[in-house]
Amino acid sequence: MPCVRIDRHEDHIWGRPVVNGLRLPDEFRQRIEDIDAGRVQPPAARHAATVVVLRDHPEHGLQAFLLRRVSSMAFAPGAYVFPGGSVDPRDADPVAWAGPSPAEWGRAFAADEALARELVCAAVRETFEESLVLLAGPTGESVVGDTRGEDWEADRQALLDRSLSFREFLDRRGLVLRSDLMRPWAHWITPAIETKRYDTRFFVAAIPAGQRARDVSTEADRVAWVKPAEAAARARAGEWAMLPPTLATLTELSRFEKVADVLAAPRRIVVQEPRGEIIDGEPYLVLPEEATHDYAQG
Q: What is the span of the domain harbouring residue 79?
């Protein structure tokens, strides 16, 4: 998804201000035209999961955990994102499970039971890989404590290089996946104009008591615990590069004061897929109407 900063210019189309169009770099013009004309077929979107890890800070209130992707990444280099990534084929392996069933998650995300299982496992696995936050415990009513240490790091590296599957990781440590620690939040699909595309479900979760998020990951060079409103303001000011789904999610979260409020909030999951358009000869990323208010407000 194009990583663009907010365009503050007073552009107008058809006599009214553009509220959900983001001006894209000129190199997108030809790709938009080629896709519209059928000369280029967009790649299929890979299923992915991302988790907005939250905490209540005694002084600053509700905060979200963000990572800045390293500049060498092929997708969204330099962007601030939530932990997450693509579904691994082995995420389909059955694991010890507590909380809402795959079928229940499937109903929340309009996915079949098999895909829902993969998404939940990918969400927990990727969050551990990128932040050391682990939503699992010895039983369905407990959660692991501090995950820092050489043994945990060795497992994290093994998950990263795929020499260890998520099921093997949980089995080795006698852990149960805690799907009840997460809530469904959103569903975004990378626009067709991108050469790498993801079909991503967003989850929210509180960092378990006793755990600490890792300072950096293989794909990130900076991390931050930040109030959602502050992070959104930095993106709008052009200080932080941010993808539209990230900014829209942070804007939504800025309305809440505590993690418990976020987890208790009712959600209606609507698929959001921005699209590339040529408007008055210029390339734009047009956001879905459902997401326009949350992205552009402020």
A: 12-296
Asked if 69 and 220 touch (Cβ cutoff 8 Å), the reply is yes
| Domains contained in the chain, number | 1
Sign of the dihedral through C-alpha 153, 157, 158, 159: positive
Threshold 0.70, pTM exceeds: yes
**Is the per-residue pLDDT at 17 higher than 50?**
no
In a domain? residue 104: yes
Dig out the tokens for 272 from the structure. 């959001």
pLDDT tens profile 151-196: 999 999 999 999 999 999 999 999 999 999 999 999 999 999 999 9
How far apart CA 110 and CA 116 sit, in angstroms, is: 9
Q: In this model, does residue 86 exceed pLDDT 60?
A: yes
Within-domain flag for 2: no
Take residue 179 and report the two structure tokens written for it: 């799907």
State CA 178 to chain mean position distance.
19
Write the DSSP assignment of 90-154 as a string of letters.
Answer: GGGS---EESS-HHHHHHHHT--HHHHHHHHHHHHHHHHHHH----EESSTT-------SHHHHH
CATH number reported for the structural domain that contains residue 150 in this entry: 3.90.79.10
Alpha-carbon distance values, 162 to 30, 45, 106, 111, 117 (Å): 37, 21, 26, 25, 19
Sign of the dihedral defined by the CA atoms of residues 107, 112, 113, 116, in that order: negative
Per-residue DSSP letter, 55: E
